[in-house]
Amino acid sequence: MSQVQRLLVLVAMMMVAVTKVASHDYGDALSKSILFFEGQRSGKLPPNQRMTWRKDSALRDGFDIGVDLVGGYYDAGDNVKFNFPMAFSTTILAWSVLEFGNFMGSDLSNALDAIKWPTDYFLKATSIPGFVYAQVGDPYADHNCWERPEDMDTPRTPYAVSKQFPGSEVSAEIAAALAASSLVFRAIDLEYSARLLSRARTVFEFANQYQGSYNDGIGRWVCPFYCDFSGYQDELLWGAAWLFRASKESNYWNYVVENIHNLENTVVKNINGFSYSGGSYAEFGWDTKHAGINILVSNLVMNSNPNFSPFIPNADKFVCTVLPESPTVSVQYSPGGLLFKPGGSNLQHPTALSFLLLVYARYLSQGNRVIHCGGVVATPARLIQVARGQVDYILGSNPLNMSYMVGYGNKFPQRIHHRGSSLPSINQQPGPIDCKGGTPYFSSNNPNPNLLIGAVVGGPDIKDSYNDSRADFVQSEPITYINAPLVGLLAYFKTH
To answer: Is residue 105 predicted with pLDDT exceeding 80?
Structure first.
């Protein structure tokens, strides 16, 4: 065999090896990413509950003040219901189904269940005119304990925003979630869809009429966990955009166009000593909706006015901040290729930003457009390629050859920062485990006894290393708003 032939064989073997590493079972990952939400359920579990080590919990939420606030999701590894990030996760789940539901196959019904669980809860949380419940559970007491949600005996205090103590960000995000979900259920349950849309209108009107941040009214309990750092104007525009898409009523469109200038100003806040600059077209997540607004609106005007300002130019600029080859890239990438932005629980950023890239790639294709980042031309195919690279990294195509989704692949996190997963289930230990009774399990080096299938953790550091430790919650804690955008991504890649 000649030197050239040997080289060709070696190249072929390397290509096979790379293909083997990079090929993932997106369908399996999709099923698991949706199943995760069943592990986060609060309230009375249904007969078709598949994650059976979880049991009923928090069955009297709100009862001490005469309001039924049973249901919804625990946002992460604790037992508090934070409605602001819960609503964002719901909005993104709904958007995932609207864009990619056709690719979900048999998982679509489970995705609908994952959306209806929180929308049923949000109908309860907004049932009293003039009040929107923003949180259930005392976070300080909760974080001082390590106990199963089925056992928790910490105060289940409800916190509400009102005319006197407004909370436009949490109210408008709930309105967005209800409006987006109304579109999802329109072809399935018209009556339920109409109820969601009607409530979305009412809650948005409340958010807009009584403007203010919930930091000022109930900040003592929502901060530092889910302070609103970037202001509430983005949520108002986000809510109005979703209401326009769901209702086609011109007043919501006019609201978006007339108020978009509110996002042009950079918002700088200092909360609990942490300085944050928001108002950027490059940001998207539970707190900052700017890039999402521009991409959502772009679809409404792409064909009629492809340069509609500032939405489409800002959506293009967002893409140029993410692409590694762009001269205006503003995110960092690890040596292994994982996208990084400042702040904890990093995997929320590659999932959310990749979701937007994928959605925008579809809109660009429909509008027959490409993006120019200086001298770099970004095609829809390139956006999809970048998004797929992030998904593949999460599923195991990384320097550690490790999946960051629990239960997917041969190597995944074993000691996630999650109370229910780390403590014996009621099936194994029926007797209660009190506040400090769970501490030995938290401190143990043993793997979690209950697999929270589909949970995606905060992820590795910028050097691609991962500390599989409950104590390192920045890396090991799963969160609903990491999984929510991944559902849409996996649905697309399952078929494409």
So the answer is: yes
For residue 343, the enclosing domain spans 280-408+455-496
pLDDT (0 to 100) of residue 273:
53
At 270 the pLDDT is 53
Per-residue model confidence (pLDDT) at position 4: 42
Q: Does 65 share its domain with 203?
A: yes
24 is catalytic: no
| Same structural domain, 285 and 198 | no
Kindly report the length of the chain: 496
Of 24, 290, 349, 417, the catalytic one is 417
Considering the domain architecture, whether residues 285 and 383 belong to the same structural domain is answered as yes
Q: Hey, is 258 helix, strand or coil?
A: helix
Q: How far apart are CA 217 and CA 166, in angstroms?
A: 7
Cβ-Cβ contacts under 8 Å for 179 (sequence gap 6 or more): 196, 197, 200, 204, 239, 242, 243, 245, 246, 247
Residue with tokens 């992460």: 76
CA-angle at 202, arms to 200 and 204, nearest 5°: 65
User: Against a cut of 0.90, is the pTM above it?
Assistant: yes
Residues 6+ apart with CB under 8 A from 448: 414, 415, 416, 418, 421, 422
- Please state, in angstroms and rounded to a whole number, the distance separating the CA atoms of residues 153 and 268: 38
Note whether 286 and 227 are within 8 A (CB).
no
